[in-house]
């Protein structure tokens, strides 16, 4: 664990060239926070890696985390697998430098 904000930590990991095979995103529950954290996490996720998160089903429903995750998956051509309150994206395609 790194005791910094998600944006600061993920930005630093990118600069340091540190990448991950598994990332949990537990962002703020609003769309913009979740969207930003998911996109930053994607940048440090290795090809073949898996990203998952929490709060997929909340009172905000399609206005918060679930909206951000669903839109991100659609843009990237991924599948979202809900599991209780968690969401899991299909593995990052190999050769995807985005």
From TrEMBL:
Cited InterPro entries: SAM-dependent_MTases_sf (IPR029063)
A Pfam match: Methyltransf_24
Domain of life, source organism: Eukaryota
Gene3D superfamilies noted in UniProt: Vaccinia Virus protein VP39
Family annotation (SUPFAM superfamilies): S-adenosyl-L-methionine-dependent methyltransferases
PANTHER family per the UniProt record, alphabetical: S-ADENOSYL-L-METHIONINE-DEPENDENT METHYLTRANSFERASES SUPERFAMILY PROTEIN
Protein name: Class I SAM-dependent methyltransferase
Lineage, top ranks: Eukaryota, Viridiplantae, Streptophyta, Embryophyta, Tracheophyta
């Amino acid at each position: 664990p790194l005791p910094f904000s998600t944006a600061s930590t993920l930005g630093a990991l990118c600069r340091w060239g540190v990448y991950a095979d598994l990332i949990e995103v537990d962002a703020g529950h609003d769309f913009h926070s979740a969207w930003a954290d998911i996109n930053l996490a994607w940048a440090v996720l290795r090809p073949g890696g898996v990203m998952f998160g929490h709060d997929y089903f909340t009172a905000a429903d399609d206005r918060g985390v679930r909206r951000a995750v669903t839109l991100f998956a659609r843009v990237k051509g991924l599948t979202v697998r809900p599991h209780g309150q968690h969401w899991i994206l299909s593995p990052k395609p190999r050769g995807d430098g985005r």
